[in-house]
UniProtKB/TrEMBL annotation:
GO terms for biological process: FtsZ-dependent cytokinesis. It holds the Pfam family SHS2_FTSA. InterPro entries: ATPase_NBD (IPR043129), Cell_div_FtsA (IPR020823), FtsA/MreB (IPR050696), SHS2_FtsA (IPR003494). Residues 10-196 form the SHS2 domain. It is found in: Cell membrane. SMART domains: FtsA. It comes from Arenicella xantha. This is Cell division protein FtsA. The lineage of its organism: Bacteria, Pseudomonadati, Pseudomonadota, Gammaproteobacteria, Arenicellales. Self-interacts. Interacts with FtsZ. The gene is ftsA. PANTHER family: CELL DIVISION PROTEIN FTSA (PTHR32432:SF4), CELL DIVISION PROTEIN FTSA-RELATED (PTHR32432). The keyword Cell cycle applies.
């Protein structure tokens, strides 16, 4: 195994409900990242995005990482890990301070962000992300780079994401049990946005829907910033379960039927084409039409899209998604998904695949890799941020650089 420059490697680890995916990126001479390897393994120790069995999760991570190392010809030491699940909470916050010397500096930005962060958070939750949306100086809205501007009153709008402390620690424990360090833990739908959405969509307004195995994660961008994130507890596993119950077939067979033949819109499923359905026990297999399978799948997918629509309407973001909806994640590839989503949302809908173009681009240009590729791109964008190497390092400069790099990467 050839040894590559460790400092040039960026590894994304997508620990999902149905699979663990490791993607290795390498920074080339031009400063761009290229995907040089990947590995995946079924995840049997996860339930709805959270660790349910540490030993099984550790084994899945080890297998995925070993496969990625073999393909990339490198040794992996640290990863950017994704996190998801119903324990994720998010909200928008507002802060305001007086500008000290009539010109906004890094200290003023630090103070206004701290002011916005001064909200009550449950003891079992920790702050995962603080995402600036915009700054306001003396009533002038829409300012993205306030440092150096004159004013008396500085305000900030932020989107904050919190996660369960125990869920976050369990993910870290599983990764460290594999002999790896955690570079950062990133909300999975934000990683998917990094690889799937275009800047034009982020400016005009878009809703990303990442349909995984255990949960469906959504993120709303408008005017270049994250406005809303949420987790819907309905996803691919529920569709599989419905098929297993309705057709009286084992879960493994139901998953295979979903992946090979399922259609989310019954009008698109041919009634004259039949499929073989395995039965429970020693009973012989049965023949059913593809339309019968679609009649089982469509109500669950429709319910999912309706729940997303209700969430957007309840939180006041339905009118912001002017460019439409982007579907991604493993379950988004199902036939009829786009057409049914357009019927429900009354908006343009497209399938989101990683827009990354280097290295193994044709291999990873698939919705199942959106989060993994996004974690690599997220890590690459944050590489130039200053690292805390000493206790005396100024927190102000670190936070200021984070804000600057966040805006540079999104506007």
């Amino acid at each position: 195994m050839s040894k590559k420059n460790e400092s040039k490697l960026i590894v994304g680890l997508d620990i999902g409900t149905s699979k663990v995916l490791a993607i290795v990126g390498e920074v080339n001479a031009a400063g761009d990242v290229e995907i040089i390897g990947y590995g995946h393994h079924p995840a049997t120790g996860m339930r709805k995005g959270v660790v349910a069995n540490i030993e099984e999760t550790v084994t899945a991570i080890q297998r995925a990482v070993e496969e990625a190392e073999l393909m990339a010809g490198c040794q992996i030491y640290s990863v950017y890990a994704g996190i998801a699940g119903a324990h994720i909470n998010s909200f928008n916050s507002h802060g305001v301070v007086a500008v000290r010397d009539s010109e906004v500096d890094a200290n003023d930005v630090e103070r206004v962000i701290e002011s916005a962060k001064a909200v009550a958070i449950p003891n079992d939750q920790s702050i995962l992300h603080v995402l600036p949306q915009e700054f306001i100086i003396d009533g002038q809205e829409g300012i993205r780079h306030p440092i150096g501007m004159n004013g008396i009153r500085l305000e900030a709008n932020l989107h904050m994401v919190t996660a369960s402390v125990s869920s976050e620690k369990n993910i870290e424990k599983c990764i460290r049990r594999c002999g790896l360090e955690v570079d950062d833990i990133i909300l999975e739908q934000l990683a998917s946005c990094e690889s799937v959405l275009t800047n034009d969509e982020k400016e005009l307004g878009v809703c990303l829907v990442d349909i995984g195995g255990g949960t469906t994660d959504i993120a709303v961008y408008a005017e270049g910033a994250v406005r809303h994130t949420a987790v819907i507890p309905v996803a691919g596993d529920q569709i599989t379960n419905d098929i297993a119950i309705a057709l009286r077939t084992p879960t493994a067979s139901a998953e295979d039927l979903k992946r090979r033949y399922a259609c989310a819109l019954r009008q698109l499923a041919p009634s004259d084409e039949s499929i073989e359905v395995q039965t429970v026990g020693d009973r012989p297999a049965r023949k059913l039409s593809k339309q019968t399978l679609a009649e089982v799948v469509e109500p669950r997918v429709e319910e999912l899209f309706e729940l997303i629509k209700v969430d957007l309407r309840r939180n006041g973001f339905e009118h912001m998604i002017r460019s439409g909806v982007v579907l991604t994640g493993g379950s988004s590839k199902m036939e009829g998904m786009i057409e049914l989503a357009e019927e429900i949302f009354h908006l343009p809908v497209r399938l989101g695949t990683p827009k990354y173009l280097g290295g193994l681009s044709e291999v990873v240009k698939n919705p199942i890799y959106s989060t993994g590729v996004g974690l690599v791109l997220f890590g690459h964008r944050n590489q130039s941020e200053p690292k805390k190497t000493a206790k005396s390092e100024s927190k102000v400069s670190v936070l200021t650089e984070r804000v600057k790099h966040w805006f540079q990467g999104n506007f």
